[in-house]
Amino acid sequence: MSTNPVLEAARPAARAVPVRRAFQLREWLEREAVFSWLMLTPPLLFLLAFLGYPFCYGVYLSFVRRPVAQPATFVGLGNFVNLWSDSIFWQAVWNTFRFTGAATVLKLVGGLGMALVMHQNFRMKGVTRILMYVGLVTQGPSWLGNPTLALVSVILVNTWRGLPFFGITILAGLQTIPTELMETATIDGAGSWQRFRYVTLPLLMPVIFIVTTFSIIFTFFDFQLVYVLTGGGPANATHLMATYAYSISMGGGQMGLGSAAALAMVPMLGLVLVAMSSYVRKA
Predict the structure, then answer these.
(1) Count of structural domains within the chain
(2) Distance CA 180, CA 269 (A)
(3) Does 128 lie in the same domain as 57?
């Protein structure tokens, strides 16, 4: 039987039906994006459970009047209005900024000097570096009872405790600077100060920015050091925002007002970090 070639050409060509591969769980898990999210899920759940929920509950408490063992009453911004007219709260705010600023500057200057010394070659260099880890102080000087010197003392204790962190981190940054740059600067006639100002310091700025940011955050929210040493006294001379919030909540039984005082730290710290970031970018 003969076939018409014209009709045969006009017929649509048979399309190959794609074969769908069976879902392979192992191949799906081995994808980079899927595997990355699976690794991130446990820490994210941990943060949500132990940080996210307490923070959200604290935000809720800041808008209610919640005495201990009594039902909550919604007051809106009433707690923040009460704090605005609280002289002790503003003293705690001023103390917090002084405490954070002074301690961070002292730790930065002392840690930078410590790192520069440890970067030199001298005898017993390894033993000296090990001793840098010893920076914890558990008891302050006996003059903590003096209102004038109490804040100075807790600043010095915080500085002594944080010096190893600054020193070791900046030392790690110093060791990444190529020696060829220093040798080239020396050949060009640069002195010690010029090499530090124009070679070492610019290359250390990313490390200094990171370590300073961490220090500001930890120092701003510091609680246990002041609470153990002075408890905020004498005469509220060393009350920080964290210790005052705890005093209102646990000592006074005003959970809502204490939560408002604690929540007020977040925007203030945010402004400090934004200002510091802007300054570093311009520099």
Answers:
(1) 2
(2) 40
(3) no
At 189 the three-state DSSP class reads coil
Task: Give the residue-averaged pLDDT of 220-239.
Answer: 86
**Do residues 37 and 125 share a domain?**
no
**Same structural domain, 192 and 100:** yes
Q: Containing domain of residue 188, as a range?
A: 86-282
Instruction: Tell me, yes or no, whether 10 lies in a domain.
Output: no
Q: Round the average pLDDT of the chain to a whole number and report it.
A: 80
Question: What is the chain's percent helix, strand, coil content, to nearest 5?
Answer: 70, 0, 25
Q: Which two tokens stand for residue 205?
A: 């700025």
Residue 213 three-state SS: helix
Same domain, 157 and 39: no
Question: What is the model's pTM?
Answer: 0.74
Q: In this predicted structure, what is the pLDDT of residue 139?
A: 45
CA distances to 142, 158, 173, 188, 242 from 223, rounded to whole Å, are: 20, 11, 30, 50, 6
CB burial of residue 248 (10 Å; 0-12, 13-18, 19+): buried
Give the residue among 163, 160, 157, 156 at the shortest CA–CA distance from 118. Answer: 163
pLDDT reading at 12 higher than 60: no
Based on the fold, state whether residues 106 and 57 are members of the same structural domain: no
Q: Which of 31, 68, 238 lies closest to 149, judged by CA? A: 238
Is the CA virtual torsion 271, 273, 279, 281 positive or negative?
negative
Tokens of 113: 């000097």
User: Same domain for 35 and 161?
Assistant: no
State what percent of residues in the chain have pLDDT above 90: 11
Mean pLDDT of 149-168: 88
In this prediction, residue 119 has a pLDDT band, given cuts at 50, 70 and 90, of: confident
Place of tokens 């090990």: 130
- Other beta carbons within 10 Å of 22: 5
- For residues 236-264, give the mean pLDDT: 88
Does residue 242 lie in a domain region?
Answer: yes
